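Fold this complex.
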Amino acid sequence: MSGPVVKLLMRRLLTVIPTLIMVSLLLFCVLRLLPVDAAAMSLPPNATNDEIAAMRIEMGLDLPLIQQYGIWFGDMIQGDFGTSIHFRTAVSTLVLDTLPATIELAVMAMGFATVFGVLGGLWLFYARGGAVEVGLDLGSVALLSIPEFLWALFFMLLFGVSLDLLPFIGRLGSGVARPETITGFLLIDSLLSGNMATFMDALRHMILPSVALGLSAAPPIMRILRSSLMDVYQEDYIHQARQRGISEGRILIRHALKNAFLPTLSLMGVQFGFLFGGTLLVEIIFSYPGMGNLMVDAIRNADLPIIQTVGLTYCVMVLLISIVVDVLYLVLNPKLREA
Amino acid sequence: MTTFDRRNILQLLGIGVAGAALPGSAVLAQAGRDMVTIAWPSDVPSWDPNQRFSPDAQPLFKLVFDQPVGQDPDLTLIPSLMTEWSLAEDGLSLSFTLRDDVTFHNGAPMTAEDVRYTFYERIKAGHKLDIANSWRHVTDIEVISPTSGVFRFGSPAPTAPQWLAFMGSYVVPKAYMEEVGVDGFRDAPIGTGPYKLVDYQMNSRLVFERNENYWGGVPEIKTITVDVIKDTSARVAAVQSGQADLTINIPVRETLRLDKTEGLTGEINAITRVILLQMRHDGEFAEQNLRLAAHHAIDKAAISKAFYGGAAVPLSVVSPPGTPGYVEGYEFAYDPEKSKELLAAAGFSADNPAKFTMATTNGHFPSDYDIARALLQMWKKVGIEVELEVIEYAKYFELNRGHKLPPATLYSWDNATGDPEIFTGYLLNPKMPFSSWKAEKPGDEVLRLFGEPDYAKRIAGYQALNREATEMGAAIPLLQSVQTLVRKSDLDYRIYRNGWVLGNSMKWG
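Structure:
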């Protein structure tokens, strides 16, 4: 790993710590402002007021807010994220059990969005100035304006019910054996255990949710790639390449695309973060047992320990993605390395 | 082993030929009539059945665990693990006899020690259990022999037999739980029930295999797969596409539509759930005439027709037909003119309307928000103007506990036992957190009935109380709620009046 990359990594990792502290404090305080009594929610409906008051003390809810935060934060840095009010299980266990499914789904969705977005961007660029560009432009706006849960319902009805082509419930079909949990990532675990039937089935189950999720992430990629390419094609080196007789295809691939891709990469980082947020509804619709599904349960049951931990996990994911994008940016852009 | 061939790739691209079979369908076809796939709206909170009260989870728990006392489809208490039970005249003890042929899934016999462990020792040991609240008055459970014992209560417990058949009351194995611990038990639960849990993926899929040694007779279906599908549209799609054989709680219009689909049957079944307006005795509704005027202005049949296809039965008391607290032949009339008279007596009219706030949930039970809006329109016609406040289900409990609900709240009250104590008793007991009505009348009578051990007297008392509560406007019962269900037409199951859909009652026709 080169020096600038290491320096960047160190710098970014150092900024992660205060960011996480800020976010955790914000999350903790905002959730405490909600008109929900966590003590009452942790007891059955027939609990008496005295029992609720006793539980409030047991949970430390009678302490000053900052003291409550201190206790929670102290436990958290030791890996104890508390116990779920609804499930009465360690929150860390619940999050670790569901996170791989969400990451797998988000990565697949991002992969789809990237392929669709880049190909669409290239098409838009080549069709510039014509009626096709207008049509594609309108199409991308339409894609952008339809939320992922509507795509999810539409795909489920079209490919799942009407055409009966693809499964739309859960991660595996009925009767398909789950592989031994090694990493928690179903695709990887089924490959590691050599179970191709499970791998294929899991992959097929991921198509509809990941396409529904990725479809609204693709148009911005498409549009920014097109505009970046248009900017790059104004540069002198493109004209010089043409004068040297280099083919248009080679100019695009070897010279233009690499530079035009840098702003696209930044956008993809942002889009990836949004994709995580979008998993909530898509996971519910496709009965996908990920962290979004868990979060919806937590919200319904006012399960504050889960909500704050999942919120923090989303934050960590976004920060990690942002670091990865920054590193890639540096690797792909020699000017930044020199600076 | 599957390889990446052209057909697979086409399917992956979503453009496979129409004959490309889904994995689930393929497995279903292979499995023939030995399995059933159910699309269920929620998961269990955990696999410790004593831990959390969750009405929707009861049919799932009942696959793996048994309750001491059972209920038949019309909700009459029947023997289950207990062959006999007898509540003492003073209501302070309950003696019981257990079956001697029941074993847990690991082969260990179920005895009175397990009953004592479930309902007493776990609670005393401080396990975080919801049943600790239901059985808080248990002072001891004496084990007389492996098949008999006595519950001792600190205060009369007239509904103890009903609670033995109610939420959370499942017998768990003492020796196994002590061996593996609570966490270990939740990871690998065993009970005495008709099925064994063989695969569980939280929020996704539960697979149950038939218990070949089940004391209650071996179930017809060998494998039951439950897909947890929280989204209503997805449940409709699952049953329509054949990926599920049965589902519940989908919109009435979808149920009626699917009923017309070949091979599917849609049902709208009335269950022991009551939709009502919970009232406050103070504030804007302190005036009885105003409460009664509000009640007379409601056309319950029209609401049922509009939102439940007419299947929800209009109610005049807070107990549905067929349950012990129901008052046969009693009807509180829909009478807008009478409503106007009562309003006038209270000093209100169309020109000088009564104004108050009503709370409702949105999406907690089918059409709740729509019903609230319909009520607003009906009241407006007689001279009552209502401001609607939409609250979250979690906030409802918060507000009710703090006695901060507005004058009226639209709510749905579930009671699988059908016993009137868990309807009117809980809703009007001023000392309970469920009650928004905190007045002495009829609160004192409710408190008396909570300690009445004689069943006949208790039920007669509740019937009178139900009528009185309606006539004084302490509660406004609206409708008996319904459960929608769609199934493959050749899949039979037993209809329980409390909405249980039990896997061990299913069989292919």
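Chain A has a mean pLDDT of 88.
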